[in-house]
Amino acid sequence: MRQRGIRHSLCFMGVVFMVLTIIAGCADSEPTWTTFVGSAVEKSFPIPKEAERTETAMNNSKMDYVHYSLSGLSESEGVPEAYQKAITEWGWTEKTEESKGTTRVYKKDKLIVQLTIHDNAFTVLVPKIEQKAVIQGLESP
Q1: pLDDT per residue as tens digits for the range 37-92
Q2: What is the per-residue DSSP string for 10-27?
């Protein structure tokens, strides 16, 4: 009878351990900031591989943007140093005169990207550049 109680206790402790392991594995974890992939709206702009796309607006006449969730980000702390380093390594430079609050503006060649940090999320926005067509008149000989 005593052994049966011990077996039940061991079985119960094993189940509790498995449940705790599963819960710990599913909990939010801090990003590693070691692996980056191209953003959905601008492939040459890095985003952490752990980021999960939650919303996308493509083919808008004024902008394209994508919103990502990523635990560990803080609006008050801004762009993490490791992320800023990756952005620079990918060839982007910050336009500090245009950056305001939680939004940072980056430029690479003729491309502009706005990165806005939120609590546990961020948004990558690519404004569309207006291209005015030049109409040339026909000259008669």
Answers
A1: 999 999 999 999 999 999 877 666 688 899 999 999 999 999 999 999 999 999 99
A2: HHHHHHHHHHHHHHHHHS
